[in-house]
Amino acid sequence: MDILRTPTDLAQRGHGGVGESASRPDGVLKVTGEFAYASDLWARDMLWGHTLRSPHAHAEIVSVDTTEALSVPGVHAVLTHADLPAATHYGLEIPDQPVLAGDVVRYHGEPVALVAADHPETARRAAARIRVEYAELPLVTDESTATAPGAPVLHPNRSDHYADRVPHPNVVHHQPVRRGDLAAAKARAEVVVTGEYELGMQDQAPLGPESGLAVPAEDGGVDLYVATQWLHVDREQLAPVLGLPRELVRLTLSGVGGAFGAREDLSMQAHACLLALRTGRPVKMVYSRDESFVGHVHRHPARLRYEHGATRDGRLVYVRGRIVLDGGAYASSSPAVVGNAASLGLGPYVCDTVDIEALALYTNNPPCGAMRGFGAVQACFAYESQMDRLAAELGMDPVSLRQLNAMSQGATMPTGQPVDAPAPVAELLRLVRDRPLPPPRQWETAVGTGTGFDLRALPGGLSNTTRGEGVVRGVGYAVGIKNVGFSEGYDDYSTARVRLEVVNGEPVVLVHTAMAEVGQGGVTVQAQIARTELGVAKVVLHPADTRVGSAGSTSASRQTYMTGGAVRNTCLLVREEVLRLGRERLGDTHPGWRGDGLWLRDGAVVTAGGEVLADLAQVLGDDVIDLEREFRHRPTEPLDPENGQGFGHVQYSFCAHRAVVEVDAELGLVKVVELAAAQDVGRAMNPQAVVGQIHGGSVQGLGLAVMEEIVVADGARVRNPSFTDYLIPTILDTPTMPVDVLELADEHAPYGLRGIGEAPTLSSTPAVVAAIRAATGLALRRVPVRPEHLTGT
Amino acid sequence: MRVSFTVNGRRHEADDVWEGESLLFVLRERLGLPGSKNACEQGECGSCTVRLDGEVVCACLVAAGQAQGREVRTVEGLADGAGPPGGLAPIQQAFVDAGAVQCGFCTPGLLVTADALLERQPSPSDADIREALSGNLCRCTGYEKILDAVRLAAARSAAGAAPTAPGPEAPPAPRSEPEPGE
After folding, report:
1. Which domains does chain B have, with CATH numbers?
2. Is residue A121 situated within a structural domain?
3. Claim to verify: residue A542 and residue A658 sit in the same structural domain
4. Residues A130-186: tens digit of each pLDDT
5. B171/A11 Cβ within 8 A
6. CATH code (residue A133)
């Protein structure tokens, strides 16, 4: 075999239907080390690719000399912009990003050249011998420098469909959302609070590095095995770059070590394919950790200004907001992030008068795009901080103020869209508030040391920085709203192929989709749905690839809804076909065949009352039913460019948090003691996996609150591209996380389910910061909160 | 250079090893054992955790030459001696049962670390578990279900009923594939 560790079928027999905590079909492979991740791929005669990246954030490329690199023994190819065979730019929505930089580099880490060699170290060393002469150019790094008179325009001659509407060519997209009579509302407001907030640049930091293997094919095409979030959109971008028809660019999903938005844009895909087509040999690329930190987009850092007006009894009268997102050097998914920030910028509250604008900038900072929460995270930190300020100004309890203004089903969004599904915002807040608080001073009662004292329960932990003196506790709350699915009129669909046959007397269902399993458990849910709808024990999941129709992206909390919906729909059509065949072949044998409500259970056709009519083997014989169908959610519409009005979103998702923190106020050390969450999930398709998503999302929000930030400084360069310097929460930083799950069905969605992956990432951050404010009395306008913000040093 | 050492009880030799290669690289790219993962390759994430003569180490920080003549145990060998062939070690079964696996990239390292913890401390407190696993980063789970899994494995072990039954049916992955570099 010439290629090893390509994905295999995942087969399971009899492990739970919808609503059960079925185990993962890939679980055993993952605990035995057998699961084939993209970085585990291997092919005979494969080469290793490496990317040379720009050391400057903005510079003209004066010259590139590859002679020396090509002379290194073991090097098989060196490629630059001049070698690109076809399209030179790509992008998710706006093709503004060079495959390899041409005349200019616009951010630190931008790809400039590629090397393929027979050993990864050889490729690295050869890349270091490519001579690139740069002439540095002036930087734009924030709103004031990007829109100053005479500022360098990063993308002159824009032709994208936002270009005509933006206030400045260094603004990617600008979206106002306006509703109500602002002047009249201001006159009615009895209390006004304003605040400015800032979020640093968060990184998704999936543990699996960007990886893949490109294999040139005899038909002139290429087969790419890759870790991505959306195979088909990768292919849409790759085919023009490779100068190949789409059908000659075949993608198969390899094992994905987490994603969180980092794999929505292309990273190594085009580069590996170009090298493979040039050398005629398989090329593997695996980013190192420092390369990963510059090799994918980040969460937009943001500056936000909010003004909340309310009556003396706490009712919101108006909310104004301005959200400035730093999109960095290329567009990526900035326009959609802007749309989310603007349309969700009020939060899960009712207010008739809203004036919010969001925009994303082009700057020379690293490109920013998708990360879990996607525009809603930034807004939530600001509007929830404002709700706490308003509560303080009014002398009200912050939870009561939120509940007083909480939206519920029937409310109207600032976009004018009616909320036509359950929106239990007040109830979620009640659930987290009513939980008993964790006991105080747990370091004095902690078990396990035999001394009645456990440093590990204190801020600073085993660093032994305090014995409890100077430690203060605080409690904070927050709630957020996230959209589910692709919005603003996007034709969002997923495809599922389902095949039913009888093998050695046993009915077997094959489910084939292009859904990217990135860890969320979509494969588990697909198997659960097939078992439930087709009543068979054995389900085989085909590897995800482009031989089946698109599943859309594993993002926007949408895959259980969309690909789950597609699998369900196709299963129901397969069931109809089984029943049709059964009636045709066996209809005379039992009057039950003429009845309504026939279904499949335990490998047999049964009546509505559960009486067995026939085994699937009897019905099908040697016949195979094999159907592939698309599934769409209800349509949305674009937001009006002037006032943001429109039926923009498919579904909304809500989560609330209560954070309990302990702070060593003298050293500025924070320990999150407990982080309780409550979320409405519509239907818990797999309760264990649902809670796992809520835990994981909550901790990413905690990370943003107190530790995670890409530091961009010294000429817009990324200064901390490692797990030594970019800190993500360890198990010691992570608290106990009790979870309440509500299941209020959304009648528009398959099984009534609600996309769940992102909402817990929103409210976690402001809840933790609110708790730190409560403990310290500090205003804290910026995340991540660092020790120096708490000590004033 | 040539490096020879024992991995999961089996003697391996790798030729043409460049002196700068790590134990992790040789395991993954030369011996066909990619279970140990390459998430940071600078000793910060724990995804490449293996036992080297019993000691818990980051394989990315061990030069391949340092493994000469020594015994390495990786996630691929965790179930050896734990029951019937193809079965799972108790800690592996607990991770599956508790929902401690999402993307799974951190899982091999966590399993090796947790297995070593339970070996020296069969009934750890939560604080002990957190301390022992603090060198293993996970980005998906928030660690709650990893704690659950270690507690579950400890409890099953205490009850003397650690199951070693095969897990859900899965295709046999190739264990003896051709080894790059051989």
Report:
1. 3-75 (3.10.20.30), 90-158 (1.10.150.120)
2. yes
3. no
4. 999 999 999 999 999 999 999 999 999 999 999 999 999 999 999 999 999 999 999
5. yes
6. 3.90.1170.50
- Contact list, A454 vs chain B (CB under 8 Å): 127
Query: Does residue A770 sit in the same domain as residue A684?
Result: yes
The full DSSP string for A317-351 is EEEEEEEEEE-TTS-TTHHHHHHHHHHTTT-SB--
Kindly list the residues from chain B whose CB atom is less than 8 angstroms away from the CB atom of residue A21.
99
Query: Domain range holding A527?
Result: 493-632
Shared domain for A230 and A107, answered yes or no, is yes
**How many angstroms separate the CA of residue A36 from the nearest CA in chain B?**
8
Question: Same structural domain for residues A658 and A613?
Answer: no
Separation of CA A185 from chain center: 37
3-state secondary structure A492-531: CEEEEEEEEEEECCEEEEEEECCCCCCCCCHHHHHHHHHH
Residues A22 and A59 sit within 8 Å (Cβ to Cβ) = no
Helix axes A334-343 and A376-394, enclosed angle (nearest 10): 20
d(CA A486, CA A495): 15
Identify whether A338 is part of a domain. no
Q: What does the mean pLDDT of chain A come to?
A: 97
Report which secondary-structure segment, H or E, holds A699.
Answer: helix A687-706
Domain end point (choices A632, A657, A687): A632
For residue B92, pLDDT beyond 50: yes
Find the CB nearest A723 among B35, B45, B177.
B45
Size of interface A-B (CB pairs under 8 A): 224
Across the interface, whether the CB atoms of A257 and B39 are under 8 A apart is answered yes
- Judge whether A339 lies within some domain: no
Of B41, B101, B138, the CB nearest to A289: B41
A699 vs B contacts (CB less than 8 Å): 142-143
CATH number of A573's domain: 3.30.365.10
Residues A621, A665 within the same domain: no
A713 interfaces chain B, CB cutoff of 8 Å: no
A541: closest CA among A554, A556, A531, A555?
A531
Q: Give the closest-approach CA distance of B159 to chain A in angstroms.
A: 20
Instruction: Looking at the structure, tell me whether residues A118 and A57 fall in a common domain.
Output: yes
Helix (H, G, I), strand (E, B) or coil at A447: coil
CA–CA dist A227, B104 (Å, integer): 13
Mutate which of B140, B169, B177 to disrupt the A interface (most A C-beta within 10 Å)?
Answer: B140
Residue A692 to residue B33, Cβ atoms within 8 A: no
Residue A379 lies in a domain: no
Q: Say yes or no: A662 and A767 in one domain.
A: yes
Q: Domain total for chain A?
A: 3
On chain A, the residues whose CB falls within 8 A of the CB of B42 are 289, 722-724
Encode burial over B52-76: b for 16+ CB neighbours within 10 A, e otherwise.
Answer: beeebbbbbebbbbebeebebbbbb
Question: What is the pLDDT, as a whole number, of residue B177?
Answer: 40
Beta-carbon contacts of A272 under 8 Å, excluding residues fewer than 6 positions away, are: A49, A212, A213, A214, A224, A226, A283, A284, A285
Q: Does A39 touch chain B (CB under 8 A)?
A: yes
Whether residues A58 and A109 share a domain: the answer is yes
Point out the domain boundary residue: A598, A632, A666.
Answer: A632
User: Taken in order A209, A236, A359, A702, is the CA torsion positive or negative?
Assistant: negative
Residue B81 has pLDDT above 80, yes or no: no
Give the per-residue pLDDT at B43: 96
Measured from the Cβ of residue A81, the count of other Cβ atoms closer than 10 Å reads 17
Q: Find residues 16-35 of chain A whose CB sits inside 8 Å of chain B.
A: 21, 23-35
b or e along A668-701 (b: 16 or more beta carbons within 10 Å of the residue's beta carbon)?
Answer: bbbbbbbbbbbbbbbbbbbbbbbbbbbbbbbbbb
Q: Is A462 on the interface with B (CB under 8 A)?
A: yes
DSSP A270-304: HHHHHHHHHHTS-EEEE--HHHHHHHS-EEPPEEE
